[in-house]
Amino acid sequence: MKDAKDLMIENYVRYNGMILPIVSICSPKPYNTKRFNEKWLIELLCDGLIYAPVDEVEPIPITEDILLKAGFNWNITGTALWDSNEFLISKDEDGYYFGVWQSSNGDEYPIFVMTLDYLHTLQNAYRLKTNKELIINF
């Protein structure tokens, strides 16, 4: 990861090949070991708690499998479309897009759209929209 500021508690990240939830995020401070010194630390749940510098954790790319595990349903309506009851995720040759849509006079139009590259971005957008955690069945 490049920046710990993109992460929130309960986001999932990849560390040493494992998909793990974030328990806490610790700001940089002096440590005796070079690995942790002056780096953002991410506390992960893995058979107990472990710390990893932010540059050792990796984002999880959005895939169709991840969307299914997060409870989204596949629709075919002219474009590749994933939906939950809260919002839509579309896909084209450039990637995935998160959108909040509004209906008016039988038509739907987007009121907010953003590029969606990683699972933690989806989790954060979902939390901001619904004030709930996105449940992912790994």
Summary?
Helices cover 13% and strands 41% of the residues. It has 138 residues and is mainly beta.
Written overview of the protein:
The strands form two sheets. A five-stranded antiparallel beta sheet has the order 5-6-7-8-9, with helices on one face. A four-stranded antiparallel beta sheet has the order 1-2-3-4. It is mostly beta strands. The chain is elongated and about 65 Å long. The two termini are 21 Å apart. The model has no long low-confidence stretch (mean pLDDT 87). It is 13% helix and 41% strand.
Please give the order of strands in the largest beta sheet: 5-6-7-8-9
Q: What percentage of residues falls in helices of 4 or more residues?
A: 10-25%
Number of distinct beta strands: 9
Mean pLDDT: 87
Rg from Cα: 17 Å
What pattern of helices and strands is seen along the backbone?
EEEEHEEEEEH
- What general form does the structure show? elongated
Pick out its properties:
four-stranded antiparallel β-sheet; 9 strands; elongated; mainly beta; 138 residues; five-stranded antiparallel β-sheet; single chain
